[in-house]
Amino acid sequence: MVQPQEPEFEQAYNELYSTLKESTLFQKHPEYEKVIPVVSVPERIIQFRVTWEDDQGNVQVNRGYRVQFNSALGPYKGGLRLHPSVNLSILKFLGYEQIFKNALTGLSMGGGKGGSDFDPKGKSDNEIRRFCTAFIRQLARHIGQFTDVPAGDIGTTGREIGFMFGAYKQMQNQFEGVLTGKGLTWGGSLIRPEATGYGLVYYVEKMIEKATNGKESFAGKRVAISGSGNVAQYAALKVIELGGTVVSLSDSKGCIICQSGITKEHIEAIIEAKVKFLSLKDIIGEYSAFETTPVQYIDGARPWVHAGKVDVALPCATQNEVSGEEAKALVAVGCKYLAEGSNMGSTQEAIDVFEAERKSASSVGDSIWYAPGKAANCGGVAVSGLEMAQNSQRVQWTAEEVDKKLKDIMVNCFNTCYETAVSYSAETNKDTLPSLVMGANVAGFVKVAEAMKAQGDWW
């Protein structure tokens, strides 16, 4: 199941299995434990060479991957990540998480993930186009609207999806919904760029409502957000729309802090500049929005220990971006809700801190409440699934229709996680909130396991 030198996948596997063991699932249904070795091995791993020509006429070589992890609930579904850090361990962890994340959406999608160690930063549009054409040429034989439907991820924007889709269409001689995140004029869905960030906030909105018995909302909450890409941008905009104050954003080089609140104008400048691969350090020196409302830039830092008092923390950058020490710092400043917009955004040490605080609370809402990425950030893949549905019908829904469906999916996902956590909890302290990480893992796992059994994958 877990191979040597796969730390990210090992972390994802251990996090799932340990929470299943701590629940009453295997006591109530002991047969489910034998599914673990089956579901934890990908159905198929595709690895290939990608050769392309740079602007100087030199041949460049990258590694390409697609991990087709589980198709019990539908075609493999998951993004393509283009980043120098991409390796098989990272893609296996992402694909493993994707299985259960997709199950929690309630849509008919299996789990997969892929990508390459190609870095689009610093490359010309022509170089990116040549790479994307070469990449999809190798992948095309393994994907299709009823087989595997990749999407974007880190480094894979609408530009890259467009190049890949065009090359696929030429090779296959057919127009099909084989990739999601497409342009609005050729099969894309409204609200897709916003979906992960919006969905994250909708999920946390339900957490706040449940913990306070409907007495509180995002209004007046101070919110620390990491990242400054797609997820962080739209999570921040939705928080501001709901009356919250966003006090931080970050990127790989540093973070910005604004105690009075990062503004819509700040975020609009970041949206414009990030397409040009500018860092936050560059952006705050070049855009007038940061002259009107100054921010503090901290080089080489994440925001968690610098944001001051916060009510909500939303990691939206990459995996393992909240350490155990940072988790303790968030607890110390009174953070009540942490939900991951990134995949596996918290280290196991951080999760242990959050869960220990939750378990030891003297009353409901008296500690931090943690929500894992497989539940809290499933809005992105949910709207990818809605894009697939629109493609099949040859229609495009309005932004209002898609947003309503997204919010319904996130509300149902929260309710499923909460109710499952209550049903399978082995904890004796009933005066605190249930474990959403356990609820998400059990709910997603059971749905996939039942489908696998019906299809003869285990018995």
Automatic annotation (TrEMBL):
Origin: domain of life: Eukaryota
Amino acids binding substrate: K77, Q98, K101, G152, S384
UniProt cross-references to Pfam families, sorted A to Z: ELFV_dehydrog, ELFV_dehydrog_N
Positions marked as site (Important for catalysis): D153
Oxidoreductase in keyword set: yes
Domain Glutamate/phenylalanine/leucine/valine/L-tryptophan dehydrogenase C-terminal: 189-456
Residues annotated to bind NAD(+): T196, N230
Similarity remark: Belongs to the Glu/Leu/Phe/Val dehydrogenases family.
Active-site positions on this chain: K113
Keywords: NAD, NADP, Nucleotide-binding, Oxidoreductase
Keyword Iron-sulfur: no
SMART domains noted in UniProt: ELFV_dehydrog
SUPFAM superfamilies noted in UniProt: Aminoacid dehydrogenase-like, N-terminal domain, NAD(P)-binding Rossmann-fold domains
UniProt protein name: Glutamate dehydrogenase
GO molecular function: glutamate dehydrogenase (NADP+) activity; nucleotide binding
Xref: InterPro entries: Aminoacid_DH-like_N_sf (IPR046346), Glu/Leu/Phe/Val/Trp_DH (IPR006095), Glu/Leu/Phe/Val/Trp_DH_C (IPR006096), Glu/Leu/Phe/Val/Trp_DH_dimer (IPR006097), Glu/Leu/Phe/Val_DH_AS (IPR033524), Glu_DH (IPR014362), Glu_Leu_Phe_Val_DH (IPR050724), NAD(P)-bd_dom_sf (IPR036291)
